[in-house]
Amino acid sequence: MKKLIKVGNVSMGGGKPVVVQGMVKTPPSDKKTAAWINSMADAGCRLVRVAVPNAFEASHLGELRKKVKVPLVADIHFDWKLAVTAAASGIDKIRINPSNIGSAAKVREVAAVCRERGIPIRVGANSGSVKSLNKGDSPKVKARKLASAVKKEVSVLEKAGFYNIVVSAKAEDVETTVEVNRILDKLAYPLHMGVTATGPRSSGIIKSAMALGTLLREGIGDTIRVSLLSDPVEEVKVAYSILSDIGLIKRKINFIACPTCGRCAVNLRAILDEIMKAFPDADTPAAKTLNVAVMGCEVNGPGEARNADLGIAFAGAKAVYFEKGRIIQTLARSGALPFIKAKIKSGIS
After folding, report:
1. Are residues 189 and 269 in the same domain?
2. Taking the model in full, what pTM does it have?
3. Residues 263 and 240 in one domain
């Protein structure tokens, strides 16, 4: 079992459930940053990281921390003094990159301030900054080099008597990500996992689901962040979808829909989008999941969706409402959307 680490009021490691975290896209000084972070928190994000590129941005951390609902993590590269400033500002955790934070002496300075204030340090390497990586390296070689960079920095902290540590190493491809996390899982410290530089939104979701899903099913990982070139709230929702789809948590609502075929006479994608917009918190954890089917024809629903708690299937100018595969009511297509929304609302209340 991994060492238990406290980040503000959030525990990770020590057998605790996997923690979903995120990273806000704007800097500390931006007036929108606090609102973004709180929106992420409302979506279930347990802690949020913010980039701190210079002293000006570091000077806004204390004010930002007072405005947000969840623990705040300062993301530090290149300048160890920014980490010291961040720690003194009341931040909850520091992330340092072992490839650019500086010498062992500088890391020890950061550790001393964090020890005084009880602030954990994440040693977070990534494939874009580890200098020993070569273009032709195989995923296994890349993984070993990334893990080595993390282990070296961890050793510096341990020799300084600092053990309040989280570790991570991220790559842009699935295979390296899986391999390096299998190596780092042998360490005693909580493991933060994610895929970096994932590319367009769709490929980012696929890469994250494949890498994180593989590792989590092996029992590896204590906290995850999904990185997407999109709204940071969506990153949180995708992270919870991954946890739900592999059975680690239950989500509030699980939407099921057929892919449609020539039998479908409605714009099922638009219909599903409209229904889902009415329930933006569908992916948040819940004690019980409501399974909702939205089907394009009478073949897929209620027959193929018989395991859904409730659902609707379209057939010509009509729609049928069903529960557990049993048709309850036939409706005019025009009244189907408000009807199913009301049933969903009732089902989760």
Report:
1. no
2. 0.92
3. no
* Same-domain status, 148 and 210: yes
Alpha helices in the chain (DSSP H): 33-42, 55-58, 61-67, 80-88, 104-117, 139-159, 174-184, 201-217, 232-245, 268-277, 336-348
Residue-number span of the structural domain to which 294 is assigned: 253-348
Residue range 292-329, pLDDT digits in tens: 999 999 877 777 788 899 999 998 899 999 999 999 99
Q: What's the whole-number average pLDDT of the chain? A: 95
Cβ atoms of 317 and 334 within 8 Å: the answer is no
- The residue from 228, 245, 262 where one domain ends is 245
Pair of tokens at residue 105:
């002496």
**CB-based contacts of 36: which residues, under 8 Å, 6+ apart?**
24, 25, 26, 232, 233
Q: What residues have CB less than 8 Å from 169, skipping those under 6 apart? A: 124, 125, 126, 143, 146, 147, 149, 150, 180, 181, 184
Closest to 84 measured CA to CA, from 120, 63, 113 = 113
Low-confidence ranges of the chain (pLDDT < 70): none
- Among positive and negative, which fits the CA dihedral 222, 227, 232, 237? negative
Give the pLDDT confidence of 69-115 residue by residue, as tens digits: 999 999 999 999 999 999 999 999 999 999 999 999 999 999 999 99
CATH number at residue 295: 3.30.413.10
Domains: count for the chain = 2
pLDDT score for 13: 98
Residue with tokens 């299998």: 182
Question: Percent of the chain scored above 90 by pLDDT?
Answer: 89
Residue 58 DSSP code: H
